[in-house]
Amino acid sequence: MKIPENMPPLTIYKYLLPKRYYTLGNAYIRWLMLLAYRGLKIKNMTPRTFNLLYKSVSHHWSEKRLLGYLQQQFIKENLSLSLLLEPIDGFDWLSKNRYPLQFSGSSPIMLQIIAPLSRFIAALNNQHPPFYQPFSNLLCTCLTSYVLNMPELEAVLKTAGVTVDKENLNKTLPLLFEESKQVLLVTKGLINRCKIGCYLGLCHTLIEKKHKKKMDFLDYFNSFLYGIWYTLTIRGKSIRQNRI
Fold first, then answer.
1. SS3 content of the chain, % helix, strand, coil (to 5)
2. Cα-Cα end-to-end distance for the chain
3. Residues 6 or more apart from 143 whose CB is under 8 A from it?
4. Is the pLDDT of residue 119 over 80?
5. Residues 6+ apart with CB under 8 A from 159
6. 3-class DSSP state of 101
7. Cβ distance 34 to 214 under 8 Å?
8. In this model, does residue 243 exceed pLDDT 50?
9. Which backbone phi and psi does 162 adopt, to 5 degrees?
């Protein structure tokens, strides 16, 4: 599925991780895409497909295989295997669903895919649990932007029984973005705050220039400046954090 020129390439999101984790991050995204390929009914499957995938996570695999590499790296980095298992449940439910769904922040695909991905990125950036929710909103904002700008992705969702109300999404996207800005208030470390700020700037650009045909250097530069500006303006602010 080709990314349109008015959207940033998916490879840009690997920079949310420290450089030493780029390979692991790419492997985890490949795992999610493998599940999506089946859960969104892009590839033929049998009712046993997800059951076998679920069992395969507990089976020892060679590091040369994708799942084996993820198993070894998860053990090395002290990551929970639940990050591999939870997305299976979400895509399994979606593949078996027989009722129409509305693409929104409360859909199973958002809850059971975005949440593990958020915890994965948070853990590798040494962030605290309060980071998860606002960062999930940031990822939801990015995903919604792709859905609004990619007819091919909308068609795939329709095949899986998920409808897209573009008018409603265009109204709720700015609200979702405002909620996602809270992520900076619970982000540890100057480098992480700057990175998150720049991605907030990128989301802001996507929302403001949703009808633009191509993202150019000036758009990325303005996103960077917006992120730095917002990072500096919220300095010293805080929100109440519950102990977990």
1. 70, 0, 30
2. 40
3. 110, 114
4. yes
5. 40, 41, 42
6. strand
7. no
8. no
9. -110, 120
Strand partners, 199: none
Name the 3-class secondary structure at 102. strand
* Type of residue found at 103: F
Cβ–Cβ under 8 Å, residues 114 and 147: no
Average pLDDT over residues 43-61: 78
- Asked whether the CA dihedral 204, 207, 212, 213 is positive or negative, the reply is positive
Q: Which residue type does 183 have?
A: V
Q: Using the 8-state DSSP alphabet, how is residue 2 labeled? A: P
41 φ/ψ sector (left φ>0, alpha ψ -120 to 50, else beta): left
Amino acid, single-letter form, for residue 128: H
Q: In this predicted model, what pLDDT tens digit does every residue of 189-238 receive, in sequence order?
A: 989 999 999 999 999 988 887 777 888 899 899 999 988 888 888 755 55
Name the β-bridge partners of 101: 162
- 10 Cβ partners below 8 Å, 6+ apart? 3, 29
Helix, coil or strand: residue 61:
coil
What is the pLDDT, as a whole number, of residue 199? Answer: 92
Neighbour tally for 131: CB within 10 Å: 26
Structure tokens at 95: 């593949």
* pLDDT above 50: residue 241: no
Residue 192 pairs with which residues in a beta bridge? none
How would you classify the pairing of strands 101-102 and 162-163? parallel
pLDDT digits (tens, 9 = 90+) for 73-102: 999 999 999 999 998 888 887 777 767 778
